[in-house]
Amino acid sequence: MSISTRIFLAMLGTLALVVAIMGFATRWSFERGFLGYLNGQAEARLHEVLPRVQQAYADNGSWDFLRSNRGAWFGLMRPANVPDWPGADGSDLPAPTTSDLTGAVIRLGLLDAQEQFVAGYRQVNEQLPKQAVVVNGETVGWLVLAPFEEAADDADHRFQKGQTRATLAVGMLSLALAAGIAWRLSRRLSRPVKELAGATHRLAAGHLDARVDLDRHDEIGVLADDFNRMAEALGRSQALRQEFLADVSHELRTPLSVLRGEIEALQDGVRPLSLDAVSSLQAEVMQLEKLVADLNELALSDVGALSYRMEPLDLAEVVRQVALSHQVAMQRLGLDLELDLPPEPVMAQGDATRLRQLLDNLLTNCARYTDAPGRVVVSVRQNEDKACMTVMDSAPTAPAADLARLFDRFFRLDASRSRETGGAGLGLAIVRNIVQAHGGQIEARQSELGGVEMTMRLPLATPMDAIEGER
User: What would the pLDDT profile of 169-219 be if each residue is shown by its tens digit?
Assistant: First the structure.
């Protein structure tokens, strides 16, 4: 069953239920409201007639004057203070009261003290409500009121059936209108869903350019925007995957080609087997080994398979130890390495080995891409509930549009950079994974020194972490 059919049936069923409830409520309101009003008018007329009936009995001494005398009975029913009005034959008749118009007169009956019929409504029984007629402290009769349901005649039944037919007709018309509205709404609601489904099928078939153009501002519009962003992300991932394969093959082929050429030269005797030749071969092997190790480590960090031993540590002390190991190499490259560390410890929760690896990658990146003479500044601060570490360098900087891509694997600002001046483009990707594994964040922006500034925020160590670390 299609989603449009489901929506149509759900809406139609709901509207049909509403129509049915409204029909039953209207019928109940009619029976309990209108009929209750009629019976209330009749009860009011009963209490109005009672004093006159009592006075008539006191004047005549019995009920004989009413037996078989409908005129006398209806004379008692008409109040004397109602103004006269012209009848059909021109004579003056008492004007009917509101209760008379509701049929109260024909639903009143009179019984004697032995509950034998005297006048009025004949079809009386013990279940009907009765009012005692008391004269001089003695019950001389009973006024009986038949409820409206007991007095319904053929005209009443015809009226009731007419109301039922009208209610059914209105209900059927309402359902027909509801069906039309539900069908239009279901088509309107399901159309964008079908477009999304079609775009999803095209995307699954490999058409990464599939997009959904829906000018909507509701939840479906948000879903369409999310779909378009997902398709764009998949397209970028596809492009990155292709670039990744091309870069990996290039990075592996270059040292392998050099190794092959060196070995063939040794085999052919073109180059003598000397210590320099062996050192050259070893350098290429180490380059291959580093690239494979980086790829393996990046793959492990992507799937969360790298082991981390989280414990409280002084981030400032870790930075000091790593910076000292890079001091001489940076001086040789014409770079000044400066530390801006607080006098008190900045206790963070992390893995010391992985954080040293992180800072090694960042400082190596600075040494590789900072022009001499230049500066590299590493600072550590505690900011509220985070331990912040910042690494910034001097020119050259990176375009603002490329800053977010610095952490993509194999991304290089200069794609033509040689292996002597550039690495494989995996270091910052590994750095980002290490930061995320620590539950932190990293961002890159242009630094005030003219280069790039990397800022990392790591969770602080809590007192409970310190206790567990001591254990």
Answer: 887 887 888 788 878 877 777 777 788 888 888 888 888 888 888 777 777
311-470 maps to CATH 3.40.50.1110: no
Residue 421, pLDDT score: 47
Rounded distance between C-alpha atoms, residue 117 and residue 204, angstroms:
90
Chain centre distance of CA 28 = 40
pLDDT over 80 at 7, yes or no: no
Mean pLDDT of 401-407: 80
**pLDDT tens profile 369-400:** 888 899 999 999 998 788 999 999 998 888 88
- Per domain, the residue ranges of the chain are 3-85+93-154, 219-302, 311-470
CATH topology for 219-302? Helix Hairpins (1.10.287)
